[in-house]
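Worked Example 4.2. Consider the chain below.
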Amino acid sequence: MKRFLLLAALFIGVTSVNAQTDENTISKEELKAKKAEKQAIANAAQAEANALQAQIDNLPGWRRGGNILITFNQSAFNNEWTGGGIGNIAGNVLINYNFNLKRGDYIWDNKFMVDYGVNKNKGDEAFTKSNDKIEFNSIGGKKAGNNWFYSAYFNAKTQLDKGADGNTHFFSPAYFQAGPGMFWRKSDNLNVMISPAAAKLIVVHSEYTDVEDNLFTPTINEIAEFNANGGYFGVEANETTRFELGAAVRAYYKLGLAKGIAMENILALYTNYLEEPKNVDIDYTMNLAMSVNKYISANLVFQAIYDDNANSNGFQIREAFGVGFNYAF
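Applying the procedure from the previous section yields the following structure tokens:
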């Protein structure tokens, strides 16, 4: 009897183990199936949300929004650190604000941006400016068909503070562009503006172009040499403005690379019909934002500028990476 009970107990135990193993196997497969089902639902919900957002974007009236991003960078080394390095601290403030209007066949898109940064290395007496830009873009248009609009645009750009070498400051130089053209607008996040007749005005302060003083009158050769060296951002001696007429292309593309990761691309091209039209001014900026949570994010900025009138040779390159506080409004 005892032997029978022992065998029965062993049989029940083995059966229970096998049943439990089967249950675990089934449970894993069921979980995978449920995950796939939920993922499909989530994808459908995201597609529906995107469609609703597209409808919202097409609603008449104003759409406003922007963000403030404050980033910090810091490094420090003690005297025993053999790997080399210089301690430094840096900070940057980026403000973006968009206010767009849609009414019937008419649109008006506006973007305001301020980007300012400072840096200080160990041993430096004071902070030096690492980045400085204030810019406003405005495009208005009337629908021509599909995503195309007859348009006109305006752009203004300058800086807030003195340059590191002291030869630039607020409104010197300042750039203004305006002109008619065609505007292709897929959405707020993808658009291209083409203007075949874009006027450009460069404004500078007379202190940087005045080759005269109270002690002497400059010779023709001295003035010619100043102008031959490109003047001051293209502005000739004893002048404060420079006018250009050419073609302009401006493009904007913002896309999501992954959840919480967005990349913004801004490209501006300009060529001057009146002087060396084969030389094209290029200004490209890439902003890569990686959100940690609602208020903390990491930001990578890359900018490449080629300006035929700037007092520099080749491309101007800037890259910055930082982690900081991000507030959307």
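The chain has two domains: 1-58, 63-205+240-328. The two ends are 80 Å apart (CA to CA). Compare this with Example 4.1 before moving on.
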